[in-house]
Amino acid sequence: MTDIKQKVMVRLCAKIVAETDLYETDKQVQNLIDWVCLSEQRKENNNTIRNLTGEYKKIEPDCQEGVRAQLERIKELCKERNSRIRSRMT
After folding, report:
1. CA 4, CA 8: separation in Å to the nearest integer?
2. SS3 per-residue string spanning the chain
3. How far is 1 from 72, CA to CA, in rounded Å?
4. So what's the pLDDT on residue 53?
5. Cβ–Cβ < 8 Å for 17, 33
6. How far apart are CA 11 and CA 4, in angstroms?
7. Nearest CA to 33 among 13, 53, 58, 19?
8. How confident is the model over 7-34, as pLDDT tens digits?
9. What pLDDT sits at residue 52?
10. Interval 53-64: pLDDT, tens
11. How far apart are CA 59 and CA 54, in angstroms?
């Protein structure tokens, strides 16, 4: 079933449920509706996760390179500090 057909079916079912008391009286109807709602939410969450992961993969190499550059700079500063400490001791 296509996405559009599924949406039409859900809307029709929602209308039927809204105009009757099936949700309150029939446990299977209640479970089915809850499952449909949760599966839609899950799809939206998965799409959000995929988008965020894609964005992260785009910027991650630059971030890693920035971290490497900072580590190298810190190493240089530590070497300079250590050499100054040694020169004071001698």
Report:
1. 6
2. CCHHHHHHHHHHHHHHHHHCCHHHHCHHHHHHHHHHHHHHHHHHHHHHHHHHHHHHHHHHHHHHHHHHHHHHHHHHHHHHHHHHHHHHHC
3. 56
4. 92
5. yes
6. 11
7. 13
8. 888 788 788 888 888 888 889 888 887 8
9. 92
10. 999 888 888 888
11. 9
pLDDT at 2: 79
Q: Is the dihedral of CA 24, 28, 31, 34 positive or negative?
A: negative
Q: What is the mean pLDDT of the chain?
A: 86
Is residue 23 a contact partner of residue 29, using CB atoms and an 8 Å limit? yes
Q: For residue 22, how many other CB atoms are within 10 A of its CB?
A: 15
Contact status, residue 23 vs residue 17, Cβ threshold 8 Å: yes
- Distance from C-alpha of 90 to C-alpha of 87, rounded to nearest angstrom: 5
Cα gap 82→90, rounded to integer Å:
13
